[in-house]
Specification:
The protein is mainly α and 202 residues long. The protein has 9 helices and no strands.
Length: 202
């Protein structure tokens, strides 16, 4: 029997060269979309910025919209994650600080522009919708855990998320000052106090 092992291409190792190339391409895409939007987005420029050949971009993402959406989702993880340390106040404060930091970057500003009626392309809005869906799901999971542990009374997690994140978007979009951890502490403190004070007592 002939040994055909040598004829086979080497298996891709997790975290190997292909993963590093993909990471560079995604980073370059996110940077270019944040800088120029979708209109001026070109594979050639992505390849040049990532330091790879254009064929590497085409091979991994034949559809440019898939590349844009994946890049935006990859680099928006901090905007959609809520940790669970067992302290709901601290976790929500950390979430707001990370959210503000993300929104203050060029990439974050691109996402914010997509919220406007005359914002970016449908591709960016699609990515934004998926990011917001992730945020809603993460908040729902964290709030459910807090309710189960007795940290919070039963509460609509979507309402809580909107109440605490609204001031972040307002301050960042206004652009006159930074949203600080002290701001986050105040916002979370007021919202959680209100939720606890208005909870029905059985």
């Amino acid at each position: 029997m002939t040994d055909r092992t040598a004829d086979r291409p080497p298996a891709r190792r997790p975290g190997g060269r292909n993963a590093r190339v993909r990471a560079r391409i995604l980073a370059a895409t996110a940077e270019l979309v944040a800088r120029d939007g979708i209109a001026g987005f070109r594979y050639e420029e992505v390849a040049e910025s990532a330091g790879v050949h254009k064929t590497s971009v085409y091979r991994n993402w034949p559809d440019r919209e898939d590349l844009v959406v994946e890049a935006m989702l990859r680099y928006a993880e901090d905007l959609a994650s809520v940790a669970d340390t067992g302290d709901i106040h601290r976790d929500l404060v950390d979430f707001l600080v990370a959210l503000a930091g993300g929104l203050e970057t060029p990439f974050g500003r691109t996402l914010e522009q997509a919220l406007l009626p005359a914002g970016q392309s449908a591709v960016v809005r699609q990515a934004l919708s998926r990011i917001l869906d992730r945020r809603v799901a993460a908040m729902r999971e964290r709030v459910a855990a807090a309710v189960e542990r007795g940290e919070l009374p039963p509460v609509d997690s979507a309402f809580l998320g909107e109440m605490i994140s609204g001031p972040v978007h307002l301050v960042v979009n206004r652009g006159t000052r930074r949203f600080t951890r002290a701001d986050a502490e105040r916002v979370v403190g007021v919202v959680l106090a209100g939720i606890r004070a208005t909870a029905p007592h059985g």
